[in-house]
Write a structure and sequence with these properties.
This protein has 21 helices and no strands. It is 82% helix and 0% strand.
């Protein structure tokens, strides 16, 4: 695509190059907004070859980083963001720096590095505040709420999303409103408040459909379908998940497709369709490994491990759960780490080791606010089973012992056993 070439020009002056680079920047942003990421990359790279002004070079590298991030090419995205960040700081461009830090935060978050993402988002928030850019501040707060959700800090996430929702509405930013509503739905779903979650997701979906954001509309429909799954409406859940899977594939949204596949796999497991469950979960895991979606990998491994426990495939079940715990510990996602620990507790119960199961369960129950409703429900059922195996006093001692030890202690012991 050489739409910027000027065959009548006899010499490419610096002014011409800068003007051409500016038009390339505008065109690449337009292509990105239209979700034509290959075109955005081509246009931005063409502009980068022409650009001489540092500010323009920063902005073009930022677009390239955005486009790579959109297609889950996180190494290339991070590379171009870092190039842009270094130059933005040298040129004292604080607003551009904030935009780039936000991009780096999303790269980190998409790979499950939530502690790093929080650092980037906090830095961006300070820069936006200093520049008096309220929209940037609200976006940063929204991003910090996403991090809090992934880390299992649901009350902090809810407070941030509520604040964001009010501010986005004051700015009349419908995309921002949709994002905050989606976040509130996710928090409610994780807490088991499915009616409230569905209410938020439905409002978010309506806005995404009105604004033509097919990718986020499909992801929101997946969340609604997941709620249908949890409340036992399996037929409607299956139909909705198959539809969102088809849409995600058509949009080349591998992350969205992997989530639909994971939920289809769990649905098949609940319906005792073992082979279909295994195929869907394996395919979900494959996609997530391809794009480096570590948070998704841990959750899918937990679901796979729990399913394998039911199928009495104890060796692969433990392997899946230990890998999930290892990744969760590495990327500091407490919620999925606790879910993996819960699965390992069930594995010990299946291996006739109720005391060890009780210790792990004690830690999960102590931190129940950081796990989703599905895991909390399984924890309570495991406790009931252990009450039938252990004397009441022994059970209380083991639960208390497990609750007293911190996550890293339990994880280190399990990963080195």
């Amino acid at each position: 695509m050489h739409i910027l070439a000027n065959p009548s020009a006899q010499e490419h002056t610096q002014d011409y190059q800068d003007q051409a680079a500016y038009y390339a920047l505008l065109a690449s942003r337009f292509a990105f907004d239209a979700q034509h990421y290959d075109a955005a990359l081509e246009l931005a790279n063409e502009g980068l070859m022409l650009a001489t002004q540092p500010e323009r070079i920063v902005q073009l590298n930022k677009v390239i980083g955005d486009a790579y991030r959109a297609v889950a090419d996180y190494p290339h995205a991070g590379y171009h963001y870092e190039l842009a960040l270094e130059l933005a700081r040298l040129q004292h461009l604080p607003v551009d720096e904030a935009h780039i830090l936000t991009g780096l935060g999303r790269v980190a978050g998409n790979q499950g590095a939530y502690s790093a993402a929080r650092v980037y988002y906090d830095a961006a928030l300070q820069l936006y505040h200093a520049a008096g850019l309220l929209a940037g501040e609200v976006e940063s707060l929204n991003n910090l709420a996403v991090v809090a959700t992934r880390l299992g800090n649901y009350e902090a996430a809810r407070r941030n999303y509520d604040r964001c929702l009010s501010l986005w509405r004051s700015l009349d930013d419908r995309s921002g409103v949709a994002g905050a509503l989606y976040g509130l739905g996710e928090v409610a779903a994780n807490c088991g408040s499915y009616d409230i979650a569905r209410h938020y997701f439905s409002q978010s979906l309506e806005i995404y459909q009105e604004t033509g954001n097919r990718k986020l509309a499909a992801r929101t429909q997946t969340e609604i379908a997941t709620i249908l799954l949890h409340v036992g409406d399996y037929d409607d859940a299956r139909e909705a998940l198959e539809q969102t899977l088809e849409t995600s594939r058509a949009l080349h949204d591998r992350k969205g497709a992997s989530v639909s596949l994971r939920n289809l796999g769990w649905l098949a497991f609940l319906c005792q369709q073992q082979e279909r469950a295994r195929v869907c979960l394996d395919e979900s895991l494959l996609l997530q490994r391809q794009i480096g979606y570590h948070y998704g990998i841990t959750l899918t491994l937990v679901y796979l491990g729990l399913a394998q426990l039911t199928w009495q495939a104890y060796v692969p079940a433990r392997s899946a759960l230990i890998e999930a715990l290892s990744i969760a510990r590495h990327i500091n996602t407490r919620s999925t780490g606790l879910a993996a620990m819960m699965g390992i507790a069930e594995w010990h119960d299946a291996q006739a080791a109720p005391s060890r199961a009780a210790q792990l369960l004690g830690h999960v129950l102590e931190n129940a606010a950081s796990v989703n409703y599905v895991i909390r429900s399984r924890a309570h059922r495991l406790r009931q089973r252990l009450e039938e195996q252990l004397p009441a006093q022994v059970l209380q001692q083991e639960l208390a012992r497990g609750a007293k030890l911190d996550f890293d202690h339990h994880a280190a012991h399990l990963l080195t056993a």
